[in-house]
Amino acid sequence: MDLEGAPAIADNPIKRNSWKAVLTLAYQSLGVVYGDLSTSPLYVYKSTFAEDIEHSDTNEEIFGVLSFVFWTLTIIPLLKYVFIVLRADDNGEGGTFALYSLLCRHARLGALPNCQLADEELSEYKKDGSDANPRNRIGSSLKSALEKSKLLQKALLGLALIGTCMVIGDGVLTPAISVYSAVSGMELSMEKEQHQYVELPVTCAILVSLFALQHFGTHKVGFIFAPIVITWLLCISSIGVYNIFRWNPHVYQAISPYYMYKFLKKTRRGGWMSLGGILLCMTGSEAMFADLGHFSQLSIQIAFTFVVYPSLILAYMGQAAYLSKHHSLETDYRIGFYVSVPEQIRVPVLAIAILAAVVGSQAVITGTFSIIKQCSALGCFPKVKVVHTSSRVHGQIYIPEINWTLMLLCLAVTIGFRNTKHMANAAGLAVITVMLVTTCLMSLVIVLCWHKNALLALCFIFFFGSFEALYFSASLIKFLEGAWVPIALSLIFLAIMYVWHYGTLMKYQSDVQNKVSIDWLLSLGPTLGIVRVRGIGLIHTELVSGIPAIFSHFLTNLPAFHQVVVFLCIKSVPVPHVGPEERFLVGRVGPKGYHIYRCIARYGYRDIHKDDVEFERDLVCSIAELIRSEKRGSSVDVMEEVEDDDERMVVIGTTSSNLEGIKLCEEDEEEEARCSDEVRISETVVKSPERLRRRVRFIVPESSHINEEAQAELMELMEAREAGMAFILGHSYVRAKRGSSFIRNIVINYGYDFLRRNSRGPSYALCIPHASTLEVGMVYHV
Is 160 within 8 Å of 437 (Cβ atoms)? Predict the structure, then answer.
């Protein structure tokens, strides 16, 4: 999962290579990354001994489980994730979709339909050497097969989506089992008759409160996360050390793999099925990789290796030491976590456990928000409302629709199951499926991205994959005992993702097939056959080249159109971030006299879109910079690219990143003095009879020499900006052709149409005044 809503900061100024910075990030990661993993001792032993095996006087079962727990934590979280998977970052970002994005760039799979060759020139695209070819024959053959086979590309996308859906399922199951297990400790401090009426309501109340507080953002309570988790880790490790010396100092011998053999030999099928409970000891391990973008690789390695890992091992050993001397427990609580806690401190430990469970659940929930945002940016999930809860901390987001959906599903699981056994079976399958997906994608990364020998990739997938497949089979066998829940949730979300991705692809292909020829535009002349009035007409389109069909619809039905026309495409690219200096691709459509431009704004799948006012200013400045660059030659970063209509595109950064570029100054008459010392294109003040319009000036560097033709064009752009900007939102709808198959009709006419009508529009369009907006739709049959 990806915990993007965490309080750690990707752009934090302390994120340097100094030891102080690394240790600070390691401290912060404890409260964000390890909340889920650190609370696993609450339910591992209880879930393992639920029904499949019994705790006998020989202690072979408890020592065998301890041996499995020790080696599972050592092989998967420590060896696989900390020392191998963390290196497979996507320019500093981690997670399932980061691996998929990395593979798409290296194998040139084209994750999005409107990808361009120009996108491969982005610095983030080249940073990881994605333009290099595999140095071995097998790697080259694999890359070629992926690029040519549509079936393999769909299979790879399907694999990434399955992992993503299981992460979303984990966002439902982890809060339920974590909070329920923490609250279950109340059983030891009250009568059983009272407890059964208290446990469920208290759990539901905590869950409702947890989800209700999400809109405040994690930065509101983030500063207390790390101390809570550190206190919890110190608590369970101290109790573990106490139990080891108090009850069985020789329990460390159980870490020998021989005890795993004895365990399986004695318990046989029951022992194999109990692995579904043991695997919960590594739940939350994926967060180390998913949250890599907020911390550094070294800080996460230090925090886990020197703090989390030894604390968990001591906690599990302490529980095993206590249980090895207590075989017949009087309480129905059996062998849960709290029976090994000294009675004098159970109440404070219960309070700390509930707080730690809330912290772990918080991290999983915000991680679900993050991965859905990534899926939406890459065209695999309907557009949803994304609220940025912090103006200072990058990546803290809140998605209302997803939040309340998760809450309802979480409450349904808690009320429906009412025991940790079924919740553990469900959570275990979700956790191990995500790990298997990561293992499969990592084996491809080793060959295609790291350019290592294919034998090394086979060893990786065989060693870790066989280990995880054993746990996967033990979880899957409990399908009727709770494991069906993540499968059902995944199928629902997978259907939504597939329908949206397929419908989006069909819609874009229809836009491309119906776009207007440039010859038609040229035949109309500079006036386009209508009256051109002052102002900027901003036409939103998904096309990155050519003239959208919706534009011809305007020209044939409207008596007048704007003096300046801009085809605006806001697109995501398969990199986590696009630098502001590479934000825009700007070019002309047709001759200069037509005053028609194309602007492509590029964002990474984890970038934050700017507010509409700043975006408009950057957009106008990018067009002005294009006009200036055509007269100055190579003063800006110019990149020529041949598209379908032979458009020449120029890479231009935002105003803040282009210090030597043109600036836009908008002011009222009384604010004129602010720009009095600058070089201006014009000093004209344009007033309307009703009110004073804002004055617009382009401020250019003093060293610039702009000829009269460029000055005249800049003057027209300035006047158009003063007159105002109108937004034309073109909507294209797709319907299945007559005679299409039944499934195609269902997917396009009902599934995709339902998702489209209930999804959000373009993010920037939400802040546009309705008086300045014109929406027009067209229907395509596919």
Answer: yes
Task: Please list, in sequence order, all residues whose beta carbon lies within 8 angstroms of the beta carbon of residue 47, skipping any fewer than 6 positions away.
Answer: 276, 277, 280, 420, 421, 424, 425, 428
d(CA 521, CA 645): 12
Q: Look at residue 221 and tell me whether its pLDDT is greater than 60.
A: no
Alpha-helical segments (H) within 558-695: 612-632
CA nearest neighbour of 772 among 722, 731, 729: 729
Measured distance CA(408)–CA(483) in Å, rounded: 19
Nearest-angstrom CA–CA distance, 8 and 11: 9
Q: Phi and psi (nearest 5°) for 737?
A: -65, 155
Please say if the pLDDT value at position 241 is more than 80.
yes
The amino acid at residue 699 is I
> What residues contact 613, with CB distance under 8 A and at least 6 apart?
none
Instruction: With beta carbons less than 8 A apart as the criterion, state whether 572 and 544 touch.
Output: no
The Cα 240–Cα 341 span in angstroms is: 9
CA distance linking residue 645 with residue 591, whole number of Å: 12
- Please tell me the least confidently modeled range out of 99-108, 173-182, 189-198, 231-240: 189-198
Strand partners, 781: 735
Q: Which residues of 62-76 are buried (b: 16+ CB within 10 A; e: fewer)?
A: bbbbbbbbbbbbeeb
Q: What is the pLDDT of residues 616-626, one digit of tens each?
A: 888 888 888 88
**How far is 745 from 747, CA to CA, in rounded Å?**
6
- Helix H, strand E, coil C: the string for 123-147 is HHHHHCCCCCCCCCHHHHHHHHHHH
Higher pLDDT, 350 or 363: 350
Q: How far is CA 493 from CA 169, 402, 497, 506, 715, in A?
A: 9, 12, 6, 20, 52
487 alpha carbon, distance to own chain's centre: 21
Helix (H, G, I), strand (E, B) or coil at 568: strand
Record the pTM: 0.83
Q: Are strands 649-652 and 584-588 parallel, antiparallel or unpaired?
A: antiparallel
Pairing of strands 663-667, 695-699: antiparallel
DSSP conformation class of 644: T
The whole-number pLDDT of residue 8 equals: 38
Of the two residues 52 and 730, the one the predictor is more confident about is: 730
The single residue listed with the structure tokens 């344009």 is 686
Q: What pLDDT is attached to residue 676?
A: 41
Mean pLDDT along residues 426-448: 92
* Helical axes 346-377 vs 96-107, angle rounded to 10°: 30
Distance CA 695, CA 676 (A): 13
Spatial contact of 31 and 359, defined as CB atoms under 8 Å apart: yes
Report the chain's C-alpha Rg in angstroms.
30
Q: Identify which of 59-68, 96-105, 209-218, 558-567 has the greatest average pLDDT.
A: 59-68
pLDDT exceeds cutoff 60 at 228: yes
Report the Cα 490 to chain-centroid distance in Å.
Answer: 17
Q: What angle do CA 221, 224, 228 make, to 5 degrees?
A: 130
Give the 3-state secondary structure percentages of the chain, helix then strand then coil, rounded to 5.
60, 10, 30
What does the pLDDT read at residue 610? Answer: 62
What local confidence, expressed as pLDDT, does residue 408 receive? Answer: 94
Residues whose CB falls within 8 Å of the CB of residue 749, separated by 6 or more in sequence, listed in order: 735, 736
Q: Average pLDDT for residues 532-544, to the nearest whole number? A: 86
Concatenating the DSSP letter of every residue in 50-100 gives SSS----TT-HHHHHHHHHHHHHHIIIIIIIIIHTGGG--BTTB-SHHHHH
Q: Which residues of 17-36 are buried (b: 16+ CB within 10 A; e: fewer)?
A: eeeebbebbbbbbbbbbbbb
Phi, psi of 560 (to 5 degrees): -150, 155
Q: Which two tokens stand for residue 380?
A: 């695999």
d(CA 383, CA 711): 41
Structure confidence at residue 672 (pLDDT): 46
- 389 neighbors 380 (Cβ within 8 angstroms): no
Residue 371 CA to residue 361 CA, distance in Å, equals 15
Provide the pLDDT for residue 440. 93
Average pLDDT over residues 331-344: 74
